[in-house]
Amino acid sequence: MTETVLESQSLTKYFGKTVAVDHLNLEIPRGCICGFVGRNGAGKTTAIKLMLGLLKPTIGSSKLLGCDSMALTPVIRQRIGYVTEGHRLFRWMSIGRLEKFQRAFFQKQWDERLFADMLEYFGLSKKQKIKHLSNGQRAQVSLALALAPNPELLIMDDPTLGLDAAIRRQFLAGMIELIMREGRTALFSSHILGDVERVSDRIVVIDKGRLRANCTLEQFRNSVKKVKVAFADRAPTEFEIEGLLNCRRSEKELELVLIGTDSNRINEWAKTVGAEKYQIVQMNLEDQFIEYTAPASKGKLFRWEEI
Amino acid sequence: MRFLAILRKELRECLPWIVLATAVLFVFGYVELFERTIPQNIDYRYRLFSPSNDVYPFDLTKRSLLAGMGQLLLVVSIGLGLAMGIRQFWVDHYAGTWGFTVHRSVNREKILSAKLTAAAIGFVVSIGAIWCLLFLYASKAPNFYVPPAKRIFFEGWVYIVSGLVVYSAAALAGLSTVRWYTTKIFGLAFAAIVLFVMVFQWRLSYAFLALLVGIFVLVVQITQTFLNREF
User: Fold this and answer.
1) Tens of pLDDT along A260-285?
2) Which domain holds residue A139?
3) Tell me, what CATH number does A153's domain have?
4) Which of A88, A101, A104 sits opposite B97 (nearest CB)?
5) Is the residue at A65 inside a domain?
6) Closest Cα of chain B to A118: distance in Å?
7) Which residue of A22, A42, A170, B58 has the fewest C-beta atoms within 10 A of its own C-beta?
8) A90 contacts in B (CB within 8 Å)?
9) What is the ipTM of this complex?
């Protein structure tokens, strides 16, 4: 049986009357790199803070490494690395001083060599002050600080936000190298889908606080399809097809976004509605994500189903 | 080890304010005492206590050289309290470093106690130590015609503790996430009331008591807010 390192049941958070996270039921197995994606304001940061016990849920609960998030003991926290959004570190400290400060909390766990190696890899010196570092360099220091204690679970809140492409790649490569160690799990939120595609083997999609998908990346890639269907005459206004998420209609063409509908079904359906021809459009993860989280249009043609 | 790491960090962050308070008190205190040792001032004092005038024991204490230091001590102490409260509890909020501070292998009680201990140490080693030195100087210097009474020494400590009330109030306001015109202002308003009550106490012990009760109420609030706050 796969061990779960992170799970939540009906995790909900309201800020006043606004719901930020809405009945989130999530399970993340050990040993995966999980991309936690959603649009701006989807509730990613709030969900992460709830899971880390930094915010209190309005309803529901969550567990990290088998321990309730609201009662995480120092021993459990020691096993969880956390990279905060925006890489907020103590600006007056030098990297060396920050390392010393951080090391005090991870006596035996702290891997001094790893930390030094990472600084070398990123081209940073311990003498540099945090306030003099660029956003990208602070991200690198944050990652080094989070990884040096060898955490079992690494949670990163939009770690590549504001970084240029080269630094992002370097950052992600550093992350993967460390996560590949046996039994490590990483959850990182991002809205840069290219990053998620590059490093994740699992994807969690959240939209308006609600869980939309929690599956392997491969499953997601295979499930979300865009089909262009051409008709000799007018395209039908009413039809039924399994897994219809979204539909755009022009006079002689339908563009369908489907979830979990296999090719045979699409073929059968195309014959049924009298389509002249159809084509399954190749999409990258970003296109799939955009289609998947596009606001649902009103009308009886449009619907969505969970994966 | 973990407590010490946080304590060191807190002390270092408050160091500029601690040094500034120390310097201000030392310089102004020394000038105040030095001014009283120059001949014309000494003559004035001698004339005040000339045989033709009645001198009451109370005058001896009230007109001591250090009596004029009260206002300075109070101002420096309140200033330091405000600065440290803001540095420890407001800056983290605006810099967004609470998450980094709180998510570590140590419980919140320890983080808070390190912050409060740093503040107490800051007050003792800056204002407290300088006040003790100035008092000692005033007691021993040969040119001073009346050595300061012990009461003045304790009065000084009342003013120093007043700064801790203001510190606690600033801390509570910094931790509170509600609006200014609601309970966020509670700590500062309460501190003002406590200081008002303290100033009008005839007995030193009552003044101390008022301050200690004030600090106790504020620290209980701070503890509850810090342990339950969402960061």
Assistant:
1) 888 888 888 888 888 888 888 888 88
2) 4-208
3) 3.40.50.300
4) A88
5) yes
6) 20
7) B58
8) 9, 13, 97, 100
9) 0.78
